[in-house]
Every structure is written in structure tokens, then in C-alpha cells.
């Protein structure tokens, strides 16, 4: 096989390239004989090591049916290679390319898809182990909730899986908010308070920023690629101004309308906690 890379039990070919992002390239490969996805990250670059280490810590501590399974992380002189569960595609591609995926992927019902997304993020926020409130690890804020970071598994029926924890942040001492020295996340999925705070150089965020973004993702999935605040060029500006230009495209009688409307409120404290979102989608 050409361009074969082997690092310990991780093996892949550069010819089997799948995708790329801000922190590396993704390949189809094998880990200890199992077909997996390999995420290759150049950790020696400025600020990369912090991101690589943060994601590794999160993946090692997260264990939930709606979180992508982590196998191992190995390094050589230049790169870190992370082996994670192979999935079929992202929610973003599924919604943007319906002719390619619809009828091919054995998806659960729409309500089950939203419920699985909600359960995964609720787990990230609370870190309750096996629904036992006395067994917890460190709760997180994801900080980059968007359709590209939600995957669709190879199971039948498919299962929704959260991925990409490079921007995640621990919740410390019970606080559900924090200050960022720089704005982080992805345009069109940023809660309004993040943009409004940015002018002061210190960006105040909270788990409710994740809730806002997930409400937008819910709508994006249900309306097959439509954002509740507009198209790719106008959505973030409309978010900043609280203009929900497309929300009326979802019927008020729809099972998810009420919870989405609450999740994308301009005022953070008006948004529900993820536990309430999970309950609403039962």
C-alpha cells in the first residue's frame, strides 16, 4: 500500500484521506486490526499542543452511547495520531446532500435523532455516569456545537455521536460560565452573547451557549440544511440581532417547535438546561 503510515498499532494510508479541519487531517485506517478513523494533528505548531491535549483528556474521560468511541492516541516526532470510532458521515453532510444519503442510511425517527443529540450534550455538560448522580467526572462545555461535529454511526439503525472536543473546557467549582481570552467556535453557530461580549476582549460564555447552538442544529436537521437565522452569509448577523428569519418554516404544531424556540432565545437565562431538553424530547 502506497504512503503507508504505521505508528504502533495505528496504521493508515495517506491515500485514504477523508476530511480536514482546523487542527489536522482525517484518514480511514486500522487500530489493532479494527477499521477506525485516524485523526492526525501536528501538535508542535503554536497553540496546537493545548488543543491536542484538551481533546485527548476529554475523550479519555467520556463514555456514552452518543459520544464517539475513543481507542488510542499515539505520537511520533511530528504528529499525534488519534484512533476513534468509524462513522458513516456527519450530520452536516447528511442534511446538505440528501440525494446521497437519504434512504441509504438507516436513520432513527426525527424525534429519536434529536433526543440522542440532546442526551449526548447533556452527558457532556453533567458527566453523570450511567445515570447515577453520585458517579461523576469533570463536566464540560463543548464550545463548538455544529452539524459537522455530530456524526452518524455505522449501526443499524444509526446512532448519533458527538465528536471533536479540541475547544471544550472544564466546568470548574460548579460554575457553569467562564471567560474566554479569545472568541472560539464557528460562525453561524455562536450564541449572541459571545459576539456582544467580544468587543470587550473578554468573552463571557456558558453551557447555555451550547444549548443555543444545539437549538439551531435541531432546526438545521429537521429542515434539511436550513438555519433558523438565515443563510450562510446572514445567519450570524441575524443571531446578533435576534432575528429568527426561518423559524416560521417549522410548524408550531411540530413536536420540536416549542423546545427549539426556547433554546434559541437571545437571553441566555431564558434557555432551558440540557436536562429539560432531554425531558421534552422523551
Automatic annotation (TrEMBL):
Molecular function as annotated in GO: ATP binding; protein serine/threonine kinase activity; RNA endonuclease activity; unfolded protein binding
Q: Which SUPFAM superfamilies match?
A: Protein kinase-like (PK-like) (SSF56112)
GO terms classed as biological process: intrinsic apoptotic signaling pathway in response to endoplasmic reticulum stress; IRE1-mediated unfolded protein response
- Span of domain Protein kinase: 12-282
Which GO CC annotations does the UniProt entry carry? endoplasmic reticulum
Q: Gene3D superfamilies this protein is in?
A: Phosphorylase Kinase, domain 1, Transferase(Phosphotransferase) domain 1
PROSITE patterns the record matches? PROTEIN_KINASE_DOM, PROTEIN_KINASE_ST
Recorded hits in InterPro entries, A to Z, give: IRE1/2-like, Kinase-like_dom_sf, Prot_kinase_dom, Ser/Thr_kinase_AS
Matching entries from PANTHER family are given as: IRE1-RELATED, NON-SPECIFIC SERINE_THREONINE PROTEIN KINASE
Q: Pfam families of this UniProt entry?
A: Pkinase (PF00069)
Q: What is this protein called?
A: Protein kinase domain-containing protein
